[in-house]
Design brief:
With about 150 residues, the chain is α+β, with helices and mostly antiparallel strands. It has one domain (about 1-150): 3-Layer(aba) Sandwich (Aminopeptidase). Helix content is about 30%, strand content about 40%. It has a 7-stranded mixed β-sheet with strand order 1-2-3-4-5-7-6, sandwiched between helices. The two termini are about 25 Å apart.
Length: about 150
C-alpha cells in the first residue's frame, strides 16, 4: 500500500469511496457537497496496485489549522492501516505547510452509534483529543464533536 496526492478527478474518487460507506455517508446532499468540495482541496489516496482503498481531503481554515474535511476507507480495508496512513500523510502535509493543528469533526458520543464509536476510537488512537461538542452545527440528530491533534 502507498499514499499519493491526487491531482485530478478528486470528486469521482470521493464519490466512489463514499458509495461504499452508506452508514457514515448516507445523506445525498452532504455527499454531493463533499464531492464538489474535494476538487479544491489537497486530497490523498491510499492505493494497493490499481485498487483505491480510501481517500482523505484537507481544508485549510487558517495558517495554523488544516481540517480533515472528509475521509473514507472501503469497509473491506478497515483496520488494515489505510486510514492510519492517510491521517499520517495529512499530518505531514499540514506540518510541512506550516500548520500547528489538524482537526476533524465527527458524530458526538452524545448520539450513541457503534460505527461512530469506532471512528472516534480510531482518531483517539491517532492522537486526537476532544476539543468541543457542537450540538447544532449539523442538526440536532447529528451533534458534532470537534477533535484536534497537535502537529
Amino acid at each position: 500500500m502507498h499514499i499519493e496526492e491526487v491531482t485530478a478527478r478528486k470528486g469521482a474518487l470521493c464519490a466512489e469511496i463514499l458509495a461504499t460507506l452508506p452508514h457514515w455517508f448516507g445523506i445525498p446532499e452532504s455527499n454531493a457537497a463533499y464531492i464538489r468540495d474535494v476538487e479544491r482541496m489537497p486530497t490523498f489516496a491510499a492505493r494497493a496496485g490499481a485498487e483505491t482503498l480510501g481517500f482523505l481531503a484537507l481544508n485549510r481554515h487558517n495558517p495554523n489549522t488544516f481540517e480533515i474535511h472528509v475521509m473514507g476507507v472501503k469497509p473491506e480495508y478497515h483496520r488494515h492501516g489505510a486510514g492510519r496512513a492517510l491521517v499520517e500523510a495529512a499530518a505531514a502535509y499540514a506540518k510541512t505547510h506550516g500548520a500547528k493543528f489538524l482537526t476533524v469533526k465527527t458524530l458526538s458520543h452524545s448520539m450513541p452509534d457503534e460505527g461512530y464509536a469506532r471512528t472516534r476510537a480510531f482518531y483517539f488512537g491517532m492522537g486526537f483529543l476532544e476539543l468541543e461538542e457542537f450540538p447544532l452545527l449539523w442538526n440536532p440528530e447529528n451533534p458534532a464533536l470537534m477533535l484536534v491533534k497537535l502537529l
